[in-house]
Amino acid sequence: MSHDHDHDNELDPFAARVRALETILTRKGLIDPAAIDVIVDTYETKIGPRNGARVVAKAWSDPAFAAWLKRDATAAIESLSYTGRQGEHMQAVFNTGDTHNLVVCTLCSCHPWSVLGLPPVWYKAPPYRSRAVIDPRGVLEEFGLVLPAGTKIRVWDSTAELRYLVVPMRPEGTEGWSEERLSELVSRDAMIGTALASHPA
Amino acid sequence: MNGPQDLGGQMGFGPVAPERDEPYFHAEWERRALGVTLCAGGMGAWNIDESRHARESLHPADYYGSSYYQIWIKALEILLKRHGFVSERDLGAGEAIDPAAKPKRVLKAENVPAVLAKGGPCDRPVETAPRFKAGDSVRTKNFNPTGHTRLPRYARDKQGTIEAVRDGFVFPDSNAHGQGENPQWVYTVVFDGTEIWGEGADPTLVVSIDAWESYLESA
């Protein structure tokens, strides 16, 4: 798949096409270019996987919160103020010793923006979207994750407006850790299901 | 529609290539593409289902040959033309030449935080009681609609089990085509990997989809 590493360049035809479109819409008074700046700043600096990591760390630390997250993820996550676009209808799914959860959107790129931020390129690209549902073990191995042969894999295809957050298992050796410290063990990939939580160094 | 977007189970795309410490954007124009798309959507002329359908309606060769934000922009141009905001002449010249339809609203910078925080919930009340309950055995329909649908091909005509009754949600198959929200109950339906993929399937695999009620029949 094309994986665009071009840098901003007047000669790049697609960059020129987007710039022209922005100019046309701005001249017609249909968009506010300053609004674009705010949107980009929001998703580049404010909303990202640290939100989700704090949700997971709280679920690890607080059984009542974990139960709430399991029952009504939208409300539980809203209590931490992580709300909004592409997080309107949340569902948390918990890894166990028996079952590993993996999230995909085979039809487009549905992703819980409010807790994980914008999705990475691989999540939106055909190799992952095509194979996560038929060969999840092979996909996980490409992320360096080899699950025991007996571990069941549950793949959640986000075909409707529910957005899934994987709650990985809490690593051993983290007893007594603060939520802040625990959250550093939780990567975006662990909350999609293509990784586990990190072990304490 | 059986379009290029319906990727589950397709083969030949090669390995997943995760990028270490991937940035959110790989070029400045991708930032603008995200922002322009969200701002244009903010005019309120189309809904998310129509916009998804515009993307999947790109020719397969174009869809597979385009990066993610390229797909967004190509579909956005189609939506803007369809709704009278830009013309072929505007796009050809790269300038605002023809008059535009009047938008319902324009998203201003000061309103962006509130609009993003609110999002676009699409749960809706449904008058009837849910037809299925958790534990029910169901079969997905076998259909091949030419319009938008959210039932992937790999999950058609398959036997599964209702795991959870969710909320009533806007029905994308009609909403994408200006035919109303027609909310229906949505269910999480689980399938054994062997039911979906048959011979050679991973015996430890379970796949679920979220399915609108009209996609399902009792089994």
From TrEMBL, chain A:
<keyword id="KW-0456">Lyase</keyword>
<protein>
    <submittedName>
        <fullName>Nitrile hydratase subunit alpha</fullName>
        <ecNumber>4.2.1.84</ecNumber>
    </submittedName>
</protein>
Automatic annotation (TrEMBL), chain B:
<keyword id="KW-0456">Lyase</keyword>
<protein>
    <submittedName>
        <fullName>Nitrile hydratase subunit beta</fullName>
        <ecNumber>4.2.1.84</ecNumber>
    </submittedName>
</protein>
